[in-house]
Amino acid sequence: MTRSKNLAKWLISGPPLLYLIFFFAIPTAMMAFAAFRFPGDYGGLMPLFGADPATGKNVLLVNSQNWHDYLTLDNFARFFQEAVYIELFIKSFGYALLTTLLCLLASYPLAWLIARSPKKWRDLLVLLVILPFWSNFLIRVYAWMIILGPQGYFAKLVNTLLGVVGIAPQQFLFTPFAVIIVLVYVHLPFMVLPLYANLEKHDMALLDAAQDLGASRWQRFWKVTWPLSLPGVYAGAALVFIPALGIFAVPDLVGGTDGIMIGNLIKQQFLDSRDWPFGSVLSIMLTLSVLLMAGLMAVLGRGGKRNAL
Amino acid sequence: MHSKQSKWLWAASLLVYGFLYLPLVIVVVYSFNDSRLNAEWVGFTTHWYGVLFADDQMLTAARNSLLIGLVSSIFATFFGTLAGLAMYKYKLRLLPILVLTPIAIPEILMALSLLMFFVALNFSMGYLSIGLAHIAFSIGFVAIVVRSRLQGMDESLVEAARDLGAGPLQAFWRVTFPLILPGIIAGALMAFTLSIDDFVITYFVAGAGASTLPLQIYSMLKIAVTPEVNAISSLLMLLTLALIVIAAKIAPGALRASH
Amino acid sequence: MKKQFLALMLAAGAAMGTAQADDVLHIYNWNNYIAPETVKHFEADCKCKVVQDYYGAMEEMLAKLAAGAKGYDIVVPTGFALPPLIKQGLVQPLDKSKIPNLKNMNPAFMNSQFDKGNVYSVPYAFTTTLIGYNDKKIKELGIDPTSWAAIFDPKVLEKIKGKVTVLDDPKELFAAAMMYNGFNPNSTDINQWQKAKETIIKAKPYWAAFNNQSYIKELTVGNIWLAHGYSNDMFQANTDAHTAKRPFNIAYSLQKEGNTLSVDNMMVMKGAPRPDLAFKFINFMLDGKNSSELTNMIGSGNPNAAAAQFVSPDIKKINAVFPTPDNMKKLYQLNSLEGKPLRDLNRLWTEVKTAR
């Protein structure tokens, strides 16, 4: 009996486990290992295998004597020695944090409204939030390229208004401003949904009780609703902050010369500079940052993640 | 609820809905604009849709996207459903980590590790590498949807079937499977959309001529945008809308389960 | 409900069932480097289909190929990218018996330092890297476009802040900055490179973007007034501006400090799925008439002697396209980099991109 149960367990969990080991765990391990290797003469990685000069056969070149010619900590040293990289990490953290805060600000009233709407409306209102999110990601970025473009109505209107006040015309596309607004736009539903899932469960009787005790509207919000909604806030924050931190397409398309983030630097190491080991170091650092943030949110949210999924 | 507060809430919410929809409306409106520039409104035309349907590269890319989406979502649904079942039935250590991490980490990390992996294996990049990568990142989403469906399932139904003499396989096919089917369909649809929508991972693991719609759109955004991009975007939005309506008809619970 | 789902799948399957031509030539080329008309002529000639992929920089192409992009038949790299491609074994020797039109080539462009004896490559076209500009705006603002100061000197840039793009290409941008500083663009002296890096970082806040491809359109639209880019792209931008009846021209000129000259070559990939079509294409492009379209329609310089008779006289007069012997003295073909210098440059480039 236990034997057939074990068999069933392996039959069910085996295929996905094998697939993910092969196409996720091993590749990730290879990337982590690459961080300790040297780049090749034309970029990429310095090969660990090569033709043996004596036999001409393909052999492993590394051995216990020469391993330091093949493995190094230099790539990590470079990351910590030059301030620019850490600064870029800090800047990206700043962008992701600002994005998260703005998403929260925009989402809260909306999630609250949906949660307090009559039941028959809720599904529709939620669907309306998700719907734009189902259109292609690049299309959503492109929409903002149209809006913010220097010849667009938005830029012309704002610049005319600025002109009245006597401020010189501003550029919107290809600025950090554009990066933030697009990041908020593409991540907004990730904040609304967990917040709504949380707010929906609140017991209105608590608010009524608070009102009966003479609490003002703000007091009711800060003392009752807000603390109760924190798990939803943390879940939403994790769902917005983490992808926003690693994004490269948005700064790439609307960021200009000053809007780049970690993701762009990593992409550059792999697809322009071909410095794979350093790219791997950056990826490891990004992974560590993400794990740190996810852990932080999980601790703060105390099970808030369940609402998100 | 106080009407004053309610008004304020409505105003803020309408603003957010406007923020969500206005950009997409602009994309659609400009797809009918008789100018290359996406700036001023010049006049109405359906010219860009004509350009789109004469653009072989765009149509090939669309076909590739559909094909990859279809095939990869079938495999991802298979693996993901098994993973969801396994995570629900057994106390496992490794599988949940492998299933959930790809969802939690930024896409670019998975993209790079897959790139290095395929290069190290001297794997010919193309539709196959794209498909394999898409399956890898979709499994987790399917697994979560299926597991949440299982968690909502009444376990006593399965027990009742077993009590009535059904074997474990029979009980699964006759009771569990029909009950979680909406979850599986929702997961499949999600895997399909994720695949069609994916840019980052595809960008890194695509090879020669293996263009998908997002790659094609990206290269047009980088080189020279014409309202043809608006036209394809509008059609894509129409397609997803249709998919959602169909999904709602086939499995009314599917949309809720997926979020 | 299962039936409905099945029907959906079938419908999707039918949409994808459209036949695909078997004879397909895959070309990996610079964007805007062949006229659509020329492609149509070739497709009619070979009864095959041409599928093109584009890159905007050599680094991008090399990285994609090094990252395992396979399935291309033809690639069109600049001189300095030939040695890495050859040494990494990514290309195959040309079967010259299948390219009778080789006889049309201008000998001055053959047998270059990058591929002695043209074993692997044959020149396709050439361009200069220079400054293209909106003639009306630049005249109004009194900017001198014949010096690299126009993209590097903060005093000049102040007038055109946010209206400038530069190439997203470490070799080209560093070469321009080196020449602006009075250095040889082919020097690998790390101190000179450091100086160039500082020049770039000082100018960077004034640039709208690093841009390899869409500056053609941005110049045409008028979003950008001045761009560091390739001569043929400026030609294209000017043609587009005329077609769109914009109230300005896109002018372009060589810089007094010197410019880079890029001779681009056709090569056949190792493991090309269709080497037969690849050689057909090379031979087709070396035909004088066909080659002249690269100049007449794309505005690139032409290394094909047989093309000269078909080239429009207006274009022959443009120095940036057909440099005079005098211009030639200040034109540099960039050298190939490998090992430490390559890593140094990439590191500096990363610092440029990351710097605030």
Automatic annotation (TrEMBL), chain A:
<keyword id="KW-1133">Transmembrane helix</keyword>
<keyword id="KW-1003">Cell membrane</keyword>
<feature type="transmembrane region" description="Helical">
    <location>
        <begin position="124"/>
        <end position="147"/>
    </location>
</feature>
<feature type="transmembrane region" description="Helical">
    <location>
        <begin position="177"/>
        <end position="197"/>
    </location>
</feature>
<keyword id="KW-0813">Transport</keyword>
<protein>
    <submittedName>
        <fullName>Polyamine transporter PotB</fullName>
    </submittedName>
</protein>
<dbReference type="InterPro" id="IPR000515">
    <property type="entry name" value="MetI-like"/>
</dbReference>
<keyword id="KW-0472">Membrane</keyword>
<keyword id="KW-0812">Transmembrane</keyword>
<feature type="transmembrane region" description="Helical">
    <location>
        <begin position="16"/>
        <end position="38"/>
    </location>
</feature>
<feature type="transmembrane region" description="Helical">
    <location>
        <begin position="93"/>
        <end position="115"/>
    </location>
</feature>
<dbReference type="Pfam" id="PF00528">
    <property type="entry name" value="BPD_transp_1"/>
</dbReference>
<comment type="similarity">
    <text>Belongs to the binding-protein-dependent transport system permease family. CysTW subfamily.</text>
</comment>
<feature type="domain" description="ABC transmembrane type-1">
    <location>
        <begin position="89"/>
        <end position="297"/>
    </location>
</feature>
<feature type="transmembrane region" description="Helical">
    <location>
        <begin position="276"/>
        <end position="300"/>
    </location>
</feature>
Automatic annotation (TrEMBL), chain B:
<keyword id="KW-0472">Membrane</keyword>
<comment type="similarity">
    <text>Belongs to the binding-protein-dependent transport system permease family. CysTW subfamily.</text>
</comment>
<keyword id="KW-1003">Cell membrane</keyword>
<feature type="transmembrane region" description="Helical">
    <location>
        <begin position="200"/>
        <end position="219"/>
    </location>
</feature>
<dbReference type="InterPro" id="IPR035906">
    <property type="entry name" value="MetI-like_sf"/>
</dbReference>
<dbReference type="Pfam" id="PF00528">
    <property type="entry name" value="BPD_transp_1"/>
</dbReference>
<feature type="transmembrane region" description="Helical">
    <location>
        <begin position="127"/>
        <end position="150"/>
    </location>
</feature>
<keyword id="KW-1133">Transmembrane helix</keyword>
<feature type="transmembrane region" description="Helical">
    <location>
        <begin position="95"/>
        <end position="121"/>
    </location>
</feature>
<dbReference type="InterPro" id="IPR051789">
    <property type="entry name" value="Bact_Polyamine_Transport"/>
</dbReference>
<keyword id="KW-0813">Transport</keyword>
<protein>
    <submittedName>
        <fullName>Polyamine transporter PotC</fullName>
    </submittedName>
</protein>
<feature type="domain" description="ABC transmembrane type-1">
    <location>
        <begin position="62"/>
        <end position="247"/>
    </location>
</feature>
<feature type="transmembrane region" description="Helical">
    <location>
        <begin position="231"/>
        <end position="251"/>
    </location>
</feature>
<feature type="transmembrane region" description="Helical">
    <location>
        <begin position="171"/>
        <end position="194"/>
    </location>
</feature>
UniProtKB/TrEMBL annotation, chain C:
<keyword id="KW-0813">Transport</keyword>
<dbReference type="Pfam" id="PF13416">
    <property type="entry name" value="SBP_bac_8"/>
</dbReference>
<comment type="similarity">
    <text>Belongs to the bacterial solute-binding protein PotD/PotF family.</text>
</comment>
<comment type="function">
    <text>Required for the activity of the bacterial periplasmic transport system of putrescine.</text>
</comment>
<dbReference type="InterPro" id="IPR001188">
    <property type="entry name" value="Sperm_putr-bd"/>
</dbReference>
<dbReference type="InterPro" id="IPR006059">
    <property type="entry name" value="SBP"/>
</dbReference>
<feature type="signal peptide">
    <location>
        <begin position="1"/>
        <end position="21"/>
    </location>
</feature>
<keyword id="KW-0732">Signal</keyword>
<protein>
    <recommendedName>
        <fullName>Putrescine-binding periplasmic protein</fullName>
    </recommendedName>
</protein>
<keyword id="KW-0574">Periplasm</keyword>
